[in-house]
Amino acid sequence: MRRVALCMALIFLGTALAACGGGQSVSGAASSPAQQAAAPPQAPPPAQLDGFDAARAYDQVAKLVAFGPRPAGSDANRLQQRYIIAQLKSYGCPVEEDDFHSQTPIGDVAMKDIVVKIPGARPDIVMFATHYDTKTLANFVGADDGASSTAVMLELARLLCARKNQVTLWIAFFDGEEAFNWDWQDPDNTYGSRELAAEMANSGDLSRLKAMVLADMIGISNLQIKRESDSTTWLTDLVWSTAARLGYGNVFVNQKLEITDDHDAFLKRGVAACDVIDFEGASPIWHTVNDTLDKIDPRSLGITGHVFLESFFALEQKLH
Ligand SMILES: [Zn+2]
């Protein structure tokens, strides 16, 4: 999502949420200065998370937020792109940049998808993905909506670019998930994921893509991630059963929620895809200036990172 997307899509139980529609943002309680000054909860040690360093991921959220508002096409977003690419290269990741232009409600906007492509023993591709742009909104820094999932994907890349993987792994950082207009109305959203899906269809890579796992808004405390109901059932089952095995059944819960997000471009092309997002828990701060670093809990980054790592290992076994 830029979460925007997500949100918008948020039609659950057949009812469009008013919050997604519109000008009226959900107002969240502002944090008191004391809350903002409080130190974040302690991150679990990497040894408990297959090496996933939640403190490092939290630090990445802080660094991304420090770029300020970073909607697609903005100077801050270009600086952020350089930062993400430099981080990935420092991990030894093979990084590809897909520059493209989108026609948007504000005119032609230059965008960039950043894709890590790690060759594996097999040509089958597993993709993890996030969006890194933030919603156009004054003073909106998107700690949860944009930075949290970007930070987790950076940490996954740090670990998996250094590993000999059994399948080919792509980690995609999408630009332009958020709608430029306040409302989420097609086609003004998910520019980057639609671009990559189309490009993969043209190149033939799409036929090798066996699973796409999207993360969005995964940074707040007390995460409650519901099964996104349009997502592919077997892939959702794999991720949720992995979480349950690791003891996170209270985080990856078995209720359903429908969200429109960057996974849809792949679902529409017949690819198994799954969205991991806590939209409802974050709704008080969603697309408000209260989506700030003090709302981010390193334990949540650690849980989702751990689940993504183990889900990737499970996918390697499944695709063997
Ligand atoms: Zn958003």
Concise summary:
The protein is of the alpha/beta class and 320 residues long. Helix content is 35%, strand content 21%.
Describe the structure.
The chain has helices at 4-9, 18-21, 33-37, 54-65, 75-90, 143-160, 191-203, 233-245, 264-267, 298-319, and strands at residues 11-12, 15-16, 95-104, 107-118, 122-131, 167-174, 209-216, 225-228, 252-257, 273-277. The protein has 320 residues and is α/β, with parallel strands linked by helices. It has a 6-stranded mixed sheet with strand order 3-4-6-5-7-10, with helices on both faces. A two-stranded antiparallel sheet has the order 1-2. It has a two-stranded parallel sheet with strand order 8-9. Helix 4 (54-65) packs across helix 10 (298-319). It starts with a helix and ends with a helix. The model is unreliable at 2-35 (pLDDT under 50). Bound molecules: zinc ion. Zinc ion binds at residues 1-4, 7, 135, 145, 178, 287.
Shape: globular
What oligomeric state do the depicted chains represent? single chain
Main sheet properties: 6 strands, mixed
The beta-strand count equals 10
Number of helices: 10
Mean pLDDT: 91
Radius of gyration, CA atoms, in whole angstroms: 18 Å
Low-confidence spans = 2-35
